[in-house]
Amino acid sequence: MIPGSKLPQTGTTIFTVMSALAAELGAINLSQGFPDYDADPRLTALVNDAMQKGYNQYAPMAGWMPLREQIAQKVEKLYGAVYNPDTEITVTAGGTQAIFTAIAATINPNDEVIVFEPAYDCYAPAIKLMGGTVKSLELEPPDYRIAWDMVKRLISNRTRMIILNSPHNPTATILRQEDIDELAALVKNRDILILSDEVYEHLVFDGEVHQSMARYPELQERSFIVASFGKLFHTTGWKMGYCLAPAALMAEFRKIHQYIVFSVNTPMQVGITEYLKDESVYNTLPDFFQRKRDFFRDGLSQTRLELLPCSGSYFQSVSYKHITDIKDCDYAIQITREHGVASIPVSAFYSKGTDHKILRFCFAKKQETLEKAVERLMKL
């Protein structure tokens, strides 16, 4: 028996497709967003030590309390926001699980959710699985700024949530103060929740400030904020993250969370707790990734590809519209096969497959990896 699909239009993600192609061809994989260098040995030693000391059974459903306390301290120091570790912080199996859980906890059939495209591909399926309706607003290159007058037109009496992502995947843009002002005015006196995907919160460049919803009490009180230890510690394979939300929202979040994963990897939580006490592990990340960004951009500037702005995240988008009018999915595959560098076509982040002839590269790689990739792309 084959049941009717709940996501009939959904297939294998483009990330899986391009990573598999890169592996098959031995290409340099700048498609999927993960580092090719090791995490800090201090962190892995702390996790190993936790295992050796016997922290190998279930953690509390909401997360190891010392870790939640450490997260609360971090958030207060960075953003001036106070979260109760007992009722307002939950450790999750990665950012994607937190996003799914927040949507599952709050979106009912016929609720409308505003999503800005290009969008990370987990948002829309989760909304649809809950019976909600995706209201998409397409952003356009090169700057991908939000047209807030258009957002106002999308709002109806069924609008339940707005999903934001800053720093943004795939465009590498960030929210600025004017965006926060527009958002705050828009949701004022409206029963609209915010799901703020902030997994790249520490990857903000050129002295810019990360505009977390936690900075603004009027936004914090209606927001689920999602963060990622995978992005923070170069450990994407650990699938560790957390969610912040006011107690009433978090209570609903945990009702769903407990039946999806119940609790998250205990020794990793114990190790991360100790590691987070060193504030330099996240305070030095902007400079660390900006050096990679600058190195990669300098190299790409010598190719025929046209650089788009990159203010945050570890992604660099490029336009090739002056080179060819081939579809971006086809061009990404062609470059992988002919030049040995895998990327992601940005049309994959649009529900309608909108093709602006733009590819996304991940620069969370060793310098020698980026050097080799540039050398190959020079031959385009």
UniProtKB/TrEMBL annotation:
CDD domains: AAT_like. It is an enzyme of class 2 (transferase). Its EC number is 2.6.1.88. One of its GO terms (molecular function) is methionine-oxo-acid transaminase activity. Keywords: Aminotransferase, Pyridoxal phosphate, Transferase. InterPro entries: Aminotransferase_I/II_large, Kynurenine-oxoglutarate_AT, PyrdxlP-dep_Trfase, PyrdxlP-dep_Trfase_major, PyrdxlP-dep_Trfase_small. Residues 28-377 form the Aminotransferase class I/classII large domain. Its cofactor is pyridoxal 5'-phosphate. This is Methionine aminotransferase. It comes from Mucilaginibacter terrae.
